């Protein structure tokens, strides 16, 4: 990260340009100067890199030799998030935009989750594994790298209003149950395992928002003609910029829940203690569920499009029933 700098550029007139110096003392001549300008980017003197603090506590125990449980809690916080702030300088007779980077305390991003797991081995070669996760991702910024745009223009309501809420990747509930059965073949060389998995996930959040062009500062006359955040539409000479406007609280809508059921067959044949053959056959989405995984969030001039909240392409649906066959030699 470079801060704005001031420096001068000199050349030694006693140098012929090819590295040959003429007799005598150096004759330094000023040929150029670099000075900070209002349009240059600035950085806070105590700018710190973003960090993530995570706290995890877990407890695992067995009620008996065939039944075990695990509980885990995770808390993750983003700190020292770097934000960008735009302003304008009028010292040279016209507006020059200044971009300043700093760690902003008002930038928030948190994740918390509770994870539960149970494992049970039954008689007659049956086994069951179940996982449940409740989680919540909240904040007013989404960046992992780069610079957050929350409150990027002071006094412009679109850069702060409705920004705090459930983030786009938040999945409140996720649950999976996996069962397996080892078929008794009465052979040391052969092994056959049947498996099934039921997977449920709640939908991701989304909201009603769009990019708008609004007034963010005074024009060349340094007079604010219309309020900050207004749709100027060229009626004044105020400065305008594109910002994202949230018409409702971030993540206030939720995409549909979805679930899938998968089956698998795994066969092993051992040629020796160290060499074996494996064949695997899998069926994904056995019931051919076609729930949407994502929806269209298009907005035009503050009005949702006709397809807002609905899927508009095959890529937004669950993958149809599919099959997978693998063969392998392991040694």
Strand content: over 45%
What is the SS-derived class? mainly beta
Report low-confidence residues grouped into runs of 5 or more: 1-5
Quick one: overall form? elongated
Tally of individual helices: 0
Share of helix among residues? Answer: under 10%
Describe the structure.
- By secondary structure, the chain is an all-beta fold.
- It is built from no helices and 21 strands.
- Helices cover 0% and strands 50% of the residues.
- The strands form six sheets. Strands 4, 5, 8, 9, 10, 11, 12, 17, 18 and 21 form a ten-stranded antiparallel β-sheet that branches. The chain has a three-stranded mixed β-sheet with strand order 3-7-6, with no helix packed on it.
- A hairpin with a 4-residue loop joins β8 and β9 (126-139).
- The two termini are 51 Å apart.
- The model is unreliable at 1-5 (pLDDT under 50).
Q: TL;DR of this structure?
A:
It is built from no helices and 21 strands. By secondary structure, it is mainly β.
Keywords, please?
331 residues, mainly beta, three-stranded mixed β-sheet, elongated
Detail the topology: elements first, then pairings:
Blueprint: E1 7-12, E2 28-34, E3 41-43, E4 51-64, E5 67-79, E6 82-89, E7 96-103, E8 109-121, E9 126-139, E10 165-166, E11 173-183, E12 190-201, E13 205-206, E14 209-217, E15 239-246, E16 253-254, E17 258-270, E18 276-284, E19 299-300, E20 303-304, E21 322-330
Parallel strand pairs: 3-7
Antiparallel strand pairs: 1-2, 4-5, 5-8, 6-7, 8-9, 9-10, 9-11, 11-12, 12-17, 13-16, 14-15, 17-18, 18-21, 19-20
